[in-house]
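Hey L., structure's done. Input below.
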Amino acid sequence: MHPGTGTRTSRPAALAAGATALLTMLATACSAGGDGTGGAAVGGPPRDGGTLRVAIAKEPECLDPHQSPTEASRLLSRPIVDSLVHQTAKGAFEPWLAKSWKISPDRLTYTFTLRDDVTFTDGTKFDAAAVVANLDHVVAPATKSLLASSLISAYKSSRAIGAHTAEITLKQPDSGFLGALAQPNLGIESPATLKGSTSALCKKIVGTGPFRTTGGLVAQKGVDYTKNPGYDWAPKSAGHSGPAHLDAIKVQVVPDNAARSGALTSGQIDAATGLDATSTRQLQNASGFTVHKTSFPGANYSYWPNTAKGPLADVSVRKALRAGIDWSTIAQRVNFGQYPSAKGPLSTTTPGYDGSQAAAYAYDPAEAGRLLDAAGWTGRDSQGYRTKDGKRLRVRHLWSDPSITNLAVQIQAAAKKLGVEFVEQNVDSGTYVERLLAGDYEIIDTSFSSPSPDVLRVLFGKENIPTPARGISNNVARYDNRTAERLFTEAQRATGQKQEFRIYGEAQRQITADAAVLPIYSPVSTFAARSAVQGVGFTADGSVDLYALWLAS
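Output:
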């Protein structure tokens, strides 16, 4: 994941994946098929055959999307697993493994009518029992799900009421339930494999998707896929039906950015994901290559202040940091203008984004100084830092990802001009998790990609504050606001998307009023490829759609 991109992009939500993956859609595409349709390139119809060689930056600790929250897991599992419903690039839901569904008037019961012509690649038939087995697997304590279970926190039970009819019961209404089911994390796996160990699933999963893998995830190598020749149930918006165009895909893990870019330009691979801003800019001007991009939906890459204790528990100090540091200019300088500046809790490509508060994120050093004075930080010590009652205004920035070093250093320098000391604390993963759970920090950075504004509840709901008792969770700002909690509950009970978006718009305004997050930039999903790689598009979560790709030569 990108310094900050998610599912979590840099550290906590997935913090859930450890300390390197945290918490990652509507696509603002810059390439053919970038709207997720996987349309053919100008010059002829798609060509079948060939093997695509792709290099990615990070391998997931676990291939099973039920367990892992990382962006890499989503990308690598999606070719293998399909979902009950499909979310289009414009945020609408359409049938996939489920032909149709009905929702009860109290919105507690979802009844899905399933396709009866779908087969897992291990030869077993997909049916209602498979749906029940998968949902129960996601929420089972033994699975130790780091994201999928939280996406369906309202789940109560499910049952097969016919061979191809599944009934799902919720504990309370959840307007984001269909969106959760559409994500790779709730992808449907063969029930026979779910009976095995979780460690075995981390290496290999079996689904109904357009590709299958025999060897599974090989540590420090990657995954080799072959076409599922019987595939014939893609969602309507996929752009084509039937088997994938490609015969095979070889995904290899190449952590070093320069090595990944070099492998592409030297012809060792056909495409690369997750290239940094420097390589992206270079390849945009290179003959024979195309850089396809889309902004991730969800939470921007941001600094998340500890709102519960320490100097940033004071909203005036948080607002002063928001106004007194030129976050946008710093981000554009560091990233060579490759990533859009952030102007709110959510990226502009997130369904339900509310842009009415953009002005609140403007650079205003005079206002920042006024806010700090009003908060009592009026003194100055010998190094020019503000003080209050003889104590320096010090903010500890906890992090463990060296890729953010340049950005962190520039923000530190800007904070010093404001009179705030940023102490950069780059720690090992174990220490990071320990201090996260204890709330022993003032600032943490990350992003979290999601195709729904419901990500606000995940990131700011009080039940998601990480603690030793609760474990790793996503509200790293440790935000607890009564109005926001009411809005989250109302949004879950919304009877339609329009109402849901209106309520989440109010939530964004409340979060902005509380300066509960300091947004920096919107992470971008990149897919740099030889120009012969065609049909490039992105899924709703910002991942490249491997099913749609084909090779012109």
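Residues 1-42 have pLDDT under 50 and may be disordered. The longest strand covers residues 155-162.

-- N.
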